[in-house]
Design brief:
Order of helices and strands: EHEHEHEHEHEEHEEEHEEHEHH
Keywords: NAD
Strand content: 15-25%
CATH topology: Rossmann fold
Largest sheet: 7 strands, parallel
CATH architecture: 3-Layer(aba) Sandwich
Pfam families: Epimerase (PF01370)
Protein name: NAD-dependent epimerase/dehydratase family protein
InterPro entries: Epimerase_deHydtase (IPR001509), NAD(P)-bd_dom_sf (IPR036291)
Distance between the termini: 48 Å
CATH class: Alpha Beta
Organism: Actinomycetospora lemnae
Number of strands: 13
Number of domains: 1
CATH superfamily: NAD(P)-binding Rossmann-like Domain
Helix content: 25-40%
């Protein structure tokens, strides 16, 4: 039986990049997205327009309401990228959106996956947000998760569902804990998109907190490679892996790199720290290297240069 992939969140930043890789390899792929209004859907449609090849088919559907058994019929690999993003928006009344799109949606997919006789792997996009303010750095997968935002709580809940369905029903899940993904086509609300755009245009860059907060930045192509390896390589059901770029630099250090990339002094405006924003992330990815043979390949300077080149195209600047 030939491989058939289902990629959820296919119009998003990571999902569309995965679909491009699969389509370029001629692998039959069904991409599904419902175009939520978390950010401008024009960018999502532009993302889809970059996916070339007759092996790719797009389905517009809300996974919390659509006929999932029909959608998963004959699917050998689920790469589950769909979900409600963002720490700041997850507080207050919006929390119900996060529970629906991150927890309930994942549970619906897993229920159908447990009945499948073709499924070989279910790859779930988790997040370093599950760790919160971790007990040590670099953080291991076995360290206690302590999310400090409602968003992190929902990502951890969905991850726990993946391990539960693996241990109870043998669903072949692999959860990948992403550490701060960046690169071309990054969401417009994410820091590097805003910073690169402002840097190229000479506009102010808003930084929340001192800028000494540390992040483990991971380039999108490295994230995609981890997903494809997780889908292809054998691993015990319920496996959880850190996917971290290994940079672990402060935001101020990253801004210094960006200043070199854009070739001009940045105009930085500082604001109070955001509630639920952790001070540091940093993952130990040695288990991903052992299980998947995965290692990050793109440095922060290389990745930011690629993101700046993409943004120049968006802005129509040289």
């Amino acid at each position: 039986m030939s491989d058939r992939y289902l990629v959820t969140g296919a119009a998003g930043f990571v999902g569309s990049t995965i679909c491009r890789r699969l389509a370029a390899a001629g692998i039959e792929t069904v991409g599904v997205d419902c175009f939520t209004d978390y950010y401008d859907t024009t960018q999502k449609k532009d993302n889809l327009a970059t996916i070339a090849g007759g092996s790719f088919r797009f389905v517009e559907a809300d996974l919390t309401a659509t006929d999932l058994p029909a959608l998963l019929e004959g699917v050998t690999h689920v790469v589950h990228q769909a979900g409600q993003p963002g720490v700041r928006s997850s507080w207050g009344e919006e929390f119900a959106v996060y529970t629906r799109n991150n927890v309930e949606l994942t549970q619906r997919l897993l229920e159908v996956a447990r009945a499948s006789d073709t499924l070989q792997r279910f790859v779930y996009a988790s997040s370093s947000s599950v760790y919160g303010d971790a007990e040590r750095y670099p953080t291991l997968e076995t360290d206690l998760p302590r999310p400090v935002s409602p968003y992190g709580v929902t990502k951890l809940a969905a991850e726990h569902l993946c391990t539960l369905y693996a241990s109870n029903f043998g669903v072949p899940t692999v959860s990948l804990r992403y550490f701060t993904v960046y690169g071309p086509r990054q969401r417009p609300d994410m820091a590097f998109t805003r910073f690169v755009r402002a840097g190229l245009l000479g506009e102010p860059i808003n930084v929340f907190g001192t800028g000494e907060q540390v992040r483990d930045f991971t380039y999108v192509d490295d994230i995609v490679e981890a997903n494809l390896l997780a889908a292809d390589r054998p691993s015990p059901p319920g496996t959880v892996l850190n996917i971290s770029g290994g940079s672990s630099v402060s935001l101020n250090e990253a801004l210094a790199v960006l200043e070199r990339v854009v070739g001009r002094e940045l105009r930085i405006v500082r604001h109070d720290r955001t509630a639920g924003d952790v001070f540091r992330t940093g993952g130990d990815a040695s288990r991903a290297a052992e299980v998947l043979g995965w290692r990050p390949a793109v440095t922060l300077e290389e990745g930011l240069a690629a993101q700046a080149e993409w943004m120049r195209g968006v802005l129509g600047t040289s």
